[in-house]
Specification:
about 30% helix, alpha+beta, 2 helices, about 45 residues, 2 strands, single chain
Length: about 45
């Protein structure tokens, strides 16, 4: 059983988060700038 799952993706992940919550799997959401996007906007 995972200790927690980290997700990114906004509203597209609602069904996934709901499913994980029903199975008592904690979800950690990423808020803010995603590391893989840093070069698209010029840095942190």
């Amino acid at each position: 059983m995972p200790k927690k799952v980290k997700l990114e993706g906004g509203q597209g992940q609602i069904a996934v988060v709901e499913c994980l919550a029903r199975h008592d799997i904690p979800v950690c959401a990423h808020v803010g700038l995603k590391p893989q996007s840093v070069h698209k906007i010029g840095g942190f």
